[in-house]
Specification:
Blueprint: E1 2-6, H1 11-22, E2 26-31, E3 46-49, H2 52-62, E4 71-74, H3 81-86, H4 88-109, E5 113-119, H5 142-161, E6 164-170, E7 172-174, H6 190-198, E8 205-208, E9 220-221, E10 223-225, H7 226-239, E11 245-250, E12 256-257, H8 258-269, E13 275-278, E14 287-288, H9 293-299, H10 308-322
Parallel strand pairs: 1-2, 1-4, 2-3, 4-5, 5-6, 6-11, 7-10, 8-13, 9-14
Antiparallel strand pairs: 9-12
The structure holds uridine-5'-diphosphate.
Length: 325
């Protein structure tokens, strides 16, 4: 297929773009490089360095070598939870308004398929774990609220205009794929932060609370390898059906606590990784684990890289290569 990948110079977008190219698809990456990196665009994919708002009409009109795109994978987004609470306009504008622009441009140019990066943050504090797609959506932060708003918009565009759409709700994405990995200017995620300690770029890790109602008192999350996540996108593209908007949760179905993550990082890196207990972080639910039953049944998807040490090792190899270590 001829595919447009928005945000294809970012973490998940670059891994997906790489897997799409390897699978024989023609890929154009549209990325303004506000948080992405030009050298994260895989060989074989073309980069258009521009924002969706300014460029989407021209990019879809141009197509790929004159032929229209068969689909869009929409990764480009603002994705920092804390920032979304302090500067909501950036998120409503940058996520919701921009995605509406994209939907309208796709409609105008007859682009038939959309795969959208949604998030577990659309659910908020769960009543039950594992979390199924039928769980109530009550986001506790602006980031999750904007992603949910986009999901609603996609549902109505699919119903009204025949778009074939899939939203994939990611849980905690981790790991790397060779030279494609996580490098954020502002790092807030647990595994990269712990690995920064192992690299000597940070003194210690702060564990946000050890009095949660979990086995070891620290928060439990569902860490999914970015390559498994990318594979779900390829399946979603193949299964998207005109006029339907399907939603799938993607996690490996297993929860790991903050302490287990720190321990796995100690084993993989051989570094003692000093950790201090700090106050709970506002808005953190105790446990977030996905039910990926629907993705397994309907997409035939199964996460293959479920071992925490393996996920950490891939992230560690990537981190060291980045630092030239
Ligand atoms: N966390 C932590 N210390 C940190 C960063 C994160 O204890 O320096 C915890 C956080 O409270 C959460 C888990 O690690 O329970 C995963 O956090 P992350 O920000 O990676 O992902 P989130 O689950 O918030 O999307």
């Amino acid at each position: 297929m001829k595919l447009l990948v928005t945000g294809g110079a970012g973490y998940v977008g670059s891994v997906c773009a790489a897997r799409l190219v390897e699978s024989g698809h023609d890929v154009v990456v549209l990325d303004d490089l506000s948080t992405g990196h030009a050298d994260a665009v895989p060989d074989g994919a073309r980069l258009v360095e521009a924002g969706i708002d300014e460029a989407i009409g021209d990019v879809l009109a141009a197509g790929f070598d004159g032929a229209g795109f068969d689909g869009v994978l929409h990764f480009a987004a603002k994705s920092l939870v804390g920032e979304s609470m302090q500067d909501p306009a950036k998120y409503w504008q940058g996520n919701v308004v921009t995605s509406l622009r994209l939907l309208d441009a796709m409609r105008e140019h007859g682009t038939p398929r959309l795969v959208f990066s949604s998030t577990a943050a659309t659910y908020g504090e769960p009543d039950e774990v594992p979390i199924a797609e039928t769980a109530p959506t009550r986001p506790t932060n602006t980031y999750g609220a904007t992603k949910l708003a986009i999901d609603h918009a996609i549902t109505s565009y699919a119903a009204a205009h025949g778009l074939a759409a899939v939203s994939l709700r990611y849980f905690n994405v981790a790991g790397a794929y060779g030279r494609f990995g996580e490098r954020h200017g502002v790092e807030t995620h647990l595994i990269p932060i712990v690995l920064q300690v192992a690299m000597g770029r940070r003194e210690r890790v702060q564990v946000y609370g050890d009095d949660w109602p979990t086995d070891d008192g620290t928060c439990v999350r569902d860490y999914i390898h970015v390559v498994d996540l990318a594979d779900a996108h390829l399946r979603a593209l193949a299964h998207a059906a005109a006029g339907e908007h399907r939603i799938y949760n993607l996690g490996n179905g297993m929860g790991f606590s903050v302490r287990q993550v720190v321990e796995a990082c100690r084993e993989v890196t051989g570094h003692p990784i000093p950790a201090d207990v700090a106050p709970r972080r506002a808005g953190d639910p105790a446990v977030l684990v996905a039910s990926s039953e629907r993705a397994r049944t309907e997409l035939g998807w199964k996460p293959e890289r479920v071992d925490l040490a393996g996920i950490v090792r891939d992230a560690w190899d990537f981190t060291r290569a980045q630092q030239g270590a």
